[in-house]
Specification:
single chain, alpha+beta, Chitinase A, domain 3, 4 helices, 5 strands
């Protein structure tokens, strides 16, 4: 799991756990002290927030568990997968586009960061250079031809050779 994503998720978990264990019980206690709970908006809002925070904490903890199970050695070295940078030719738009396949937490379409769970990401996963991915979007089908592929392994090798001063020839 990318370290910055782990920190981001852990920070949100910490904030929500504090809210759930300290702030919301204090709000509920204060609202109960006001009396009649059937018409007590503060009480109902605090209870709703408590339910939401509890559900969000469950989601975040499940996501942390899922991401911790990602094994980089299982990511293919010759096909697109998590961490790959892919140059595609979009025949619909008649242009080349660069995408990087990332986790859903990192996705930012405007920067070319596409989640592996998005329609484009799912369509690209497992493809090789020369393959054509047919993507079904709300605006219709798009055909993306894989022109260039750099996997997460290629990037790690390039970073390793840069840090050791080695060069490819």
């Amino acid at each position: 799991m990318p370290e910055h994503i782990k920190k981001q998720l852990l920070a949100e978990i910490e904030i929500l756990e504090r809210e759930l264990s300290h702030e919301l019980p204090a709000e509920i206690k204060k609202a109960v002290a006001m009396g009649d709970l059937s018409e007590n908006a503060e009480y109902h809002m605090a209870k709703q927030r408590q339910t939401f925070v509890d559900a969000r904490l469950g989601q975040l903890k499940r996501r942390m568990a899922e991401l911790s199970l990602v094994n980089l050695t299982n990511i293919p070295r010759d096909r697109t997968g998590f961490g790959s940078t892919v140059v595609v030719y979009d025949s619909t738009k008649e242009e080349e586009i660069v995408y990087r396949l990332v986790t859903s937490e990192e996705s930012d379409v405007s920067k070319g960061l596409i989640s592996t769970t998005s329609p484009i990401g799912r369509g690209l996963v497992g493809k090789r250079v020369g393959d054509i991915a047919t993507i079904v979007t709300p605006n219709g089908k798009r055909e993306l031809e894989i022109l260039k592929l750099t996997t997460i392994h290629d990037e790690a090798a390039a970073a390793g050779s840069e840090s050791t001063g080695a060069t490819k020839q």
